[in-house]
Specification:
Helix content: under 10%
Low-confidence stretches: 1-32
Mean pLDDT: 86
Oligomer: single chain
Shape: elongated
Number of strands: 41
Number of helices: 3
Strand content: over 45%
Length: 540
Amino acid sequence: MMKMKTIYYLLLFVLGCGLMSCYDDKSTYDTKEIPNVELDLNGVSETQYVAYLGKLHIDIPVKKNGIPDHPDLEYKWEIELSSSAELREVLSNERVLDTIAAMPILASGYTLTLEVTDKASSLKYYSVFSLVVESQFGEGIIVAHSRDGVTSDLSLIMDKDITKGFAGTEKIQYDDIFTSKGEPLEDWIDQVAYTVSGATWSTYQNILWMAGRNGLFRADCRDYSFLETGKIIPFVTETYTSGHFYLAPQTTILVMNNQVYQHLRQNDAIFIKPEVVSDLGGLQSNYVDNRVVAAATGDGTHSSGSSIWYDSRVGRFGRFNGAFSQNKCSLYSSSENDDNFPFDPSAVPGKEAVAGGFMNSSSLVMVLKDKVSGEYSLYTFFTKNQDNTLVNPTPSYLYSVPAAIKDLLDRSVSICFSTVDPIMYVATAREIHAVRLNIDGSLASSLKYTAVAGENITILKFYTQGRYNVNSEDFDSDTESLLTLPLNTKAVMMATQASDSEGYVYLIPQKDPGTGNLDEEKQVKYDGFGKISDITAQGR
């Protein structure tokens, strides 16, 4: 079929790879005077594909009487967003369509029309396409940041080291996603957490949780549209003050207003406030100090009981109970204490929670600080026996912190734990130190990294792939899309600030497994962010 279309009749043609329709023309021009207007569709497909929030670029040469871009010609690119509601939007009035595809993802395709108007004759010429909008947001690192200190936005980094199946040679970075969709989030994002909803890995929907200063948000990772945000905690009547999310086996944990909530991922509708189980003395509490929870992140073998927190009001550790008791939590009871325990989890008064996490594939760790002396202690709980059988969190070690490591903790800005080694990473404004928790009850620290001059470290997290962080058992050698990347559990993610308007993200690989050493020469740096409030690995 000939691709160069010339109109000589008082008919309006719809041109689009063989699709032709005619319209009545009301003009009184003599047919011999109709100008020669040509739309060159050579190499232009009837169906156009574009990534959501990606660049939509279509260049159709147009001539009048053989003259390109004739001044008599006007252009209008229009998309039909809803045929039932006759909702249309003008995307551009330029001949070359060059815009961002901010319309919702739609696999069936939108109707996109180029209208060319000859001002001299009032004749109109049309070319019609199907526009398919697909999600190109996938595995990578999500960056929550602000450019004005009031509103927030998200950026997504996709690269060969953090994105399974990445085919390019250079990173893909989607900046300011909410702004690209219309406007930034009218809240400061304190924390972001990736998880999934659905009963099985094949039906999972990728979800991004956000805890703001003024509320909670849940977004679909395909296009970052919000999902029933008002129904996350519908039964809560007290004023919202703060929130934080944690990934635990089978569940997602929310700490809000220093109270703990939970829901099963296969029923990702609302969070439930757990029933509080009394100990033998009748003591009840559901208080989480400083929003700190230690959960068996990524370990699908664990029951929902593998999470603990510190209750400073009563000086005890709290926990979710064992398998399939997702709606019940309790304080450790004095009756549960064992003479072989290194500490009594029901008698830890006068502390405050500093950090918590999952370490060495088998231990929950809580860092507590004495409110009077300022001394630190590390409390660890086994979640597996030596034969790898599961147990409810059981006291395993109590570490006293020597002066040198106390100084590190006093200056710390961020703390994270290796999920595969007995190592705690402590970041100060300028340095990263690795603290090894030895089986003899001692601690040893060493400097592993110094920040670039002019930048201060603000956030440090142990790197695991997003889906691996949810449940490592989802990764099966027969499921290629879920194969692990080489840096999974072998790197740290770091955010730095050169100023409030200039933030950076680093991915720093480990070297010499088991040592906590970091390979500065192989680090990758990503830029273009404002003030970074949190980072997280997003799965696929």
